[in-house]
Each structure stands twice: as C-alpha cells, then as structure tokens.
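Q: What changes when magnesium ion is included in the input?
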Amino acid sequence: MKKQISVTVCASLVATVFVAGAADVPEKNERQPEQTSIDGFSNTPMQPDGKWHIHDPNRTQPPVAEPKYDGKRVPPPNGSKMLFDGSNLDQFVNKGWKLEDGSMIAAKGGQKSNEKFGDIHLHFEWLVPVGLKGYGQKQGNSGVFLMERYEIQVLNCWANRTYPDGMTGALYGQQPPLANACRKPGEWQSYDLHFKAPVFEDGKLVTPARITVYLNNVLIQDDVAFNGATAWKRRPTYKPHEPTGRFSLQHHGSPVRYRNIWVAPLKLKLGE
Ligand code: MG
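A: The predicted holo structure follows.
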C-alpha cells in the first residue's frame, strides 16, 4: 500500500512524495518521485567514446523493456553442468553463505566457483529483497565477475535509477545495458551470460573478453568487448592471466539471493 503525503522541502516549495512501506514494491519501472537525484560521478576519466564520464549520472538512461521471464527455475539444457541446485555449496568456495529455500544468500567474503572456466554460458537466477533502504547503488548491489575480473552488475533497477554504466546488466563502469528489463524486488530474475575469455599472447592482449547478456530473456548486451578488468572510478586495463578462471559473486553489503546456477558450453551461435 502507498500513501500520498505532502512535505515541505523549503519555505516556498511543497513536494508530493510517495511513502512505501517495507513490504511495498513500486509499480512502475521508472524512477520513483522520492528518489531526488541519481548517484554517480562527474570528476572521473572519460569513457573511450569521449562523451561520458565513467559512472556518469547524466548519461542517457536505457529504455525500459518488458521482462520475458516468469520467475520459474530454468531447467538446465542437455550438456550443461549444475553447480548449485539449492541443496549444498559443494561447487563453491565460501561455505559461510547461508542456504535458504533453495537459494544462497550473499554474505561476507563473496563467493566463487571451485571450477575454472574459459568460454562459458553461465545461467543463474537472482533476487533482490524488498525493502532495502536507499537508492542507486544501495538497491542490492552485487554482481558476477567472470574470471574474477569482468563484472556484470546485479542491482535492483526497478523504480530505481543509478548511473547507467552501473545499472543492472551493465559491464560495470564500461557499458550500460541496451534496455532496463528488470523485474521487481522480491521476484526472481534470470541471467544468461555468453562469455568469451580474452586471449593473450606473449604477455599482450590479442582478443578482448566479450559478452552477450540476456536479462529475463531480453537481450541487453550484444557481443560487447570489455575494455579491461572491472574498475571503479578509473579506466579499466588488461593484465595477462590464465586462459581459465573462476567466476565470483559479489557481496556488497546486500543479502541478494542466488539460485539455479549452471554452466553450458558456449555455442558458436549465441543466444540459441
Ligand atoms: Mg556490483
């Protein structure tokens, strides 16, 4: 339930705001009136396109797209490998994450896979709980780091705006998603990541890491190259590393849930 109230912001300005209780979820996939500003930075280096700063709050917000996912567990296809079915953390390093209702809950220390991967199709489902306080990056910041370096952001961007290169489905700090296809807090969301590992030869980058991302079955990154390992407030760079690596799940203070994590060979034709 929402109740509409008026508050006096200063002597001459009266603003109308909506006050939502902890159990409420805003109804529209857009910034809510009570979020009065968008977080971000304007004193950071420029992106390679020269148009926007890294984490620029003024960067154009992607359009809203209708999610095409109903919140059910997506069964792993033939040839895939289940890493987390909700019953145990055998395939993961941090045993301190709590298991509940078939999911694992982000907690201290982050999480990482036991196994190392190169090119990979990674599927998982995630949920940001209802009622988190604050806006922008405070709405359930987490993320998946391929090879522990290349982050696709996890965040609630339903009725929450942040700098576009830090929103749900962004190559964090680098590339905003094509669209905002978020479901509501309290609802399960699906990610399918088709990741191609970078190639190094003689200590030099030959081919950058590339990724295609589906959020809730909506294409939001279309074979995009990473500019380097994920960085905060600075330009990313590449440093040579092994051809395979673990993926990690970020804990940034929010109890984001993860479930149904499986990997499959990367198909040559992405998105099939
Ligand atoms: Mg993150």
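Observations recorded in class: The chain has one domain: 40-264.
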